[in-house]
Input
Amino acid sequence: KKQVEFYMSDANLKKDEFFRSKIEESKEGWLELTYIMNCNKIKNMKIKPSDIVSALKNSSAIEVSKDKKNLRRKGGLALPKADPARKREVKAASKEEKKEELKTVDVQYDTQGRPIYVLLDFENPVIVHFETANREGEDFKVNWKEIEIVVRKAF
Output
Protein backbone atom coordinates (compact mmCIF):
# COMPACT_ATOMS: atom_id res chain seq x y z
CA LYS A 1 0.00 0.00 0.00
CA LYS A 2 2.72 2.47 1.00
CA GLN A 3 4.76 1.79 -2.16
CA VAL A 4 1.80 2.34 -4.47
CA GLU A 5 0.82 5.48 -2.56
CA PHE A 6 4.38 6.72 -3.04
CA TYR A 7 4.24 6.05 -6.79
CA MET A 8 1.09 8.19 -6.98
CA SER A 9 2.34 10.92 -4.61
CA ASP A 10 3.20 14.50 -5.55
CA ALA A 11 6.84 13.89 -4.65
CA ASN A 12 7.18 11.00 -7.10
CA LEU A 13 4.96 12.31 -9.89
CA LYS A 14 6.99 15.53 -10.08
CA LYS A 15 9.92 13.43 -11.33
CA ASP A 16 8.40 10.25 -12.75
CA GLU A 17 7.77 11.08 -16.39
CA PHE A 18 6.52 7.59 -17.25
CA PHE A 19 3.69 7.51 -14.71
CA ARG A 20 2.88 11.17 -15.43
CA SER A 21 2.50 10.46 -19.14
CA LYS A 22 0.31 7.41 -18.56
CA ILE A 23 -1.94 9.31 -16.14
CA GLU A 24 -2.18 12.27 -18.55
CA GLU A 25 -3.30 9.89 -21.34
CA SER A 26 -6.42 9.09 -19.31
CA LYS A 27 -9.09 11.79 -19.28
CA GLU A 28 -10.01 10.98 -15.69
CA GLY A 29 -6.47 10.47 -14.36
CA TRP A 30 -6.44 6.66 -14.20
CA LEU A 31 -3.28 4.57 -14.27
CA GLU A 32 -3.44 0.93 -15.31
CA LEU A 33 -2.55 -1.45 -12.48
CA THR A 34 -0.33 -3.39 -14.90
CA TYR A 35 2.15 -0.46 -14.90
CA ILE A 36 2.42 -0.67 -11.12
CA MET A 37 2.86 -4.45 -11.33
CA ASN A 38 5.84 -3.94 -13.67
CA CYS A 39 7.79 -1.88 -11.12
CA ASN A 40 10.79 -3.75 -9.73
CA LYS A 41 9.92 -3.05 -6.08
CA ILE A 42 6.45 -4.50 -6.60
CA LYS A 43 7.85 -7.50 -8.50
CA ASN A 44 10.24 -8.19 -5.61
CA MET A 45 7.30 -8.28 -3.20
CA LYS A 46 5.87 -11.17 -5.25
CA ILE A 47 2.30 -9.98 -4.86
CA LYS A 48 -0.71 -10.23 -7.12
CA PRO A 49 -2.83 -7.37 -8.47
CA SER A 50 -5.64 -8.50 -6.18
CA ASP A 51 -3.33 -7.98 -3.17
CA ILE A 52 -2.77 -4.36 -4.20
CA VAL A 53 -6.49 -3.79 -4.76
CA SER A 54 -7.25 -5.21 -1.30
CA ALA A 55 -4.56 -3.10 0.36
CA LEU A 56 -5.84 0.09 -1.29
CA LYS A 57 -9.45 -0.31 -0.11
CA ASN A 58 -8.70 1.81 2.97
CA SER A 59 -6.30 4.21 1.25
CA SER A 60 -6.91 7.90 1.82
CA ALA A 61 -4.81 8.82 -1.24
CA ILE A 62 -5.73 6.30 -3.97
CA GLU A 63 -8.93 4.89 -5.37
CA VAL A 64 -9.42 1.74 -7.44
CA SER A 65 -11.70 1.58 -10.49
CA LYS A 66 -14.84 -0.57 -10.42
CA ASP A 67 -13.24 -3.12 -12.73
CA LYS A 68 -10.18 -3.20 -10.39
CA LYS A 69 -7.77 -2.69 -13.29
CA ASN A 70 -6.95 1.00 -12.80
CA LEU A 71 -5.83 3.33 -10.01
CA ARG A 72 -5.97 7.08 -9.57
CA ARG A 73 -5.37 9.72 -6.97
CA LYS A 74 -8.48 10.21 -4.78
CA GLY A 75 -11.06 12.35 -6.53
CA GLY A 76 -8.94 12.60 -9.66
CA LEU A 77 -6.52 14.95 -7.88
CA ALA A 78 -4.55 16.99 -10.43
CA LEU A 79 -0.95 16.10 -11.16
CA PRO A 80 1.74 18.27 -9.58
CA LYS A 81 3.93 20.47 -11.78
CA ALA A 82 6.83 18.53 -13.27
CA ASP A 83 10.21 19.16 -11.66
CA PRO A 84 12.71 19.97 -14.42
CA ALA A 85 15.64 18.52 -12.43
CA ARG A 86 14.93 14.86 -12.98
CA LYS A 87 16.79 12.10 -11.16
CA ARG A 88 18.88 11.12 -14.17
CA GLU A 89 19.98 14.68 -14.80
CA VAL A 90 20.97 15.11 -11.16
CA LYS A 91 22.94 11.85 -11.26
CA ALA A 92 24.69 12.89 -14.47
CA ALA A 93 25.67 16.23 -12.92
CA SER A 94 27.13 14.51 -9.85
CA LYS A 95 29.10 12.12 -12.09
CA GLU A 96 30.62 15.10 -13.90
CA GLU A 97 31.66 16.59 -10.55
CA LYS A 98 33.30 13.31 -9.55
CA LYS A 99 35.16 13.17 -12.86
CA GLU A 100 36.61 16.59 -12.15
CA GLU A 101 37.83 15.30 -8.77
CA LEU A 102 39.52 12.32 -10.46
CA LYS A 103 41.58 14.42 -12.85
CA THR A 104 44.71 13.56 -10.86
CA VAL A 105 45.94 10.22 -12.09
CA ASP A 106 48.30 8.00 -10.11
CA VAL A 107 50.48 6.03 -12.52
CA GLN A 108 53.18 3.52 -11.61
CA TYR A 109 55.59 2.16 -14.22
CA ASP A 110 57.33 -1.18 -14.59
CA THR A 111 61.02 -1.59 -15.50
CA GLN A 112 60.21 -1.18 -19.20
CA GLY A 113 58.30 2.05 -18.66
CA ARG A 114 54.81 0.56 -19.14
CA PRO A 115 52.04 1.74 -16.82
CA ILE A 116 51.07 -0.95 -14.34
CA TYR A 117 48.45 0.90 -12.29
CA VAL A 118 46.24 3.84 -13.17
CA LEU A 119 43.54 5.37 -10.99
CA LEU A 120 40.52 6.35 -13.11
CA ASP A 121 36.78 5.77 -12.99
CA PHE A 122 35.09 2.92 -14.85
CA GLU A 123 33.95 5.14 -17.69
CA ASN A 124 37.60 5.66 -18.65
CA PRO A 125 39.02 2.16 -19.06
CA VAL A 126 42.75 1.66 -18.74
CA ILE A 127 44.94 -1.18 -19.92
CA VAL A 128 47.00 -2.44 -17.03
CA HIS A 129 50.19 -4.43 -17.61
CA PHE A 130 51.28 -6.84 -14.91
CA GLU A 131 54.94 -7.66 -14.46
CA THR A 132 55.27 -11.39 -13.83
CA ALA A 133 58.06 -13.88 -13.57
CA ASN A 134 57.90 -16.29 -16.51
CA ARG A 135 58.25 -19.88 -15.46
CA GLU A 136 58.33 -22.49 -18.14
CA GLY A 137 55.47 -24.96 -18.10
CA GLU A 138 53.26 -22.72 -15.92
CA ASP A 139 50.27 -20.85 -17.28
CA PHE A 140 49.69 -17.32 -16.14
CA LYS A 141 46.49 -17.23 -14.08
CA VAL A 142 44.56 -14.20 -12.95
CA ASN A 143 42.29 -14.27 -9.93
CA TRP A 144 39.57 -12.03 -11.38
CA LYS A 145 37.44 -12.21 -8.25
CA GLU A 146 40.31 -10.80 -6.19
CA ILE A 147 40.88 -8.02 -8.74
CA GLU A 148 37.18 -7.19 -8.71
CA ILE A 149 37.20 -6.90 -4.91
CA VAL A 150 40.24 -4.61 -4.96
CA VAL A 151 38.73 -2.42 -7.68
CA ARG A 152 35.37 -2.14 -5.87
CA LYS A 153 37.14 -1.08 -2.67
CA ALA A 154 39.16 1.53 -4.56
CA PHE A 155 36.12 3.03 -6.25
The radius of gyration is 26 Å.
